[in-house]
Amino acid sequence: MKLAIFLPNWIGDVVMATPALRAIRNEFSSAEIVGVMRPYVADVLAGTGLIDRELFYNPRSKDSSQRDISLIRRLRAERCDTVVLLPNSFRSGVLAWLTGARRRVGFARDLRSWLLTDRVVPKSKSTPHPVMDEYLRLADRMGCRSLATKTELAVSPEDQARLDEFWSGRWVTENQEWKQITSQSPANYVCLNTGGAFGAAKNWPREYFAALARRIATELNRSVLIVCGPAERDDARWIAEQARHPSVLSLADTPPSIGLTKAAIRSAQLLVTTDSGPRHFAAPFGTPVITLFGPTHIEWSETRYELAEHLQLKLDCGPCQQRECPLKHHRCLRDLSVENVYAAVQRQLQRRSSLPKVA
Fold this sequence. Notes:
Layout: E1 2-6, H1 11-16, H2 18-27, E2 32-37, H3 42-45, E3 53-56, H4 68-78, E4 82-85, H5 90-98, E5 103-107, E6 118-120, H6 131-141, H7 157-167, E7 171-174, E8 177-180, E9 189-193, H8 206-219, E10 223-227, H9 233-243, E11 248-250, H10 258-267, E12 270-274, H11 282-285, E13 289-292, E14 308-311, H12 331-334, H13 338-352
Parallel strand pairs: 1-2, 1-4, 2-3, 4-5, 5-6, 9-10, 9-12, 10-11, 12-13, 13-14
Antiparallel strand pairs: 7-8
Helix pairs in contact: 2-6, 7-10, 8-9, 8-13
């Protein structure tokens, strides 16, 4: 048996899909599972064993091998028995239908019901509800019996080695003393994740991040490591410089890598993050996480992780779900003070000191 699974396009959504992918993997243990995905999300699932092979797909790619016609040819050559659609788009429905697969499972929306053999009626888009639960409904429709909600990820030895190499030779303060890191990460550091692909409306002001990093380093005697994707490198570098403390560092000058970001978050005592994809890297590794919510509704991305703390101001104008603040004041995040976030950091670090780390 061979299954093709169209994965979500967003990094965080791919992580939230891992419970459904695990359910499918367990139920169809002898099947070959081919993941159809954007190239940039491939590293998210690396090492999990949830898929066997990858087919890269991006309809806007300059590489013709990743566009629609090529994908259809490749999928038809695969002769898949079943295609599972995690995205909701009409385009993905057409692609699934054109593969010739006998069974096509997905949500009956966006006028694509006739393209599917197994239709799941989606919940209302006007009522926020966890995306993770929706993915599990697709697994349930396939007959999967084990529908656990724990997300999962893995870190490769190579990515851990890259993190250790980053720390090698650096000096940080630890337990009121300066310590030279030689071969591994420091025992006490906090990760900051400052940006996201959604849009500027999700961003906590970078001057706030700089002030928070300085307080964590000076008052809590922790190192701070700022992780970043390609689009956030300048901000990460600026925040580290403005913090003006030798224990505040960034990955801005290392080649950007999802694998390295996973390794950094796994080894951290705490992650403080915007509502962006890497926030979901914390739960699989048992890392406490504070998420700063602005225009987005918490319920859409809720995973019920017990070591997560969500910070969001209650305003008449939100959550608006807009990529740019329509009122131009961005109060949902500008009014979320450094003092409030710092207090949450203190709470989480106190909790973390009494909890075992997930291996």
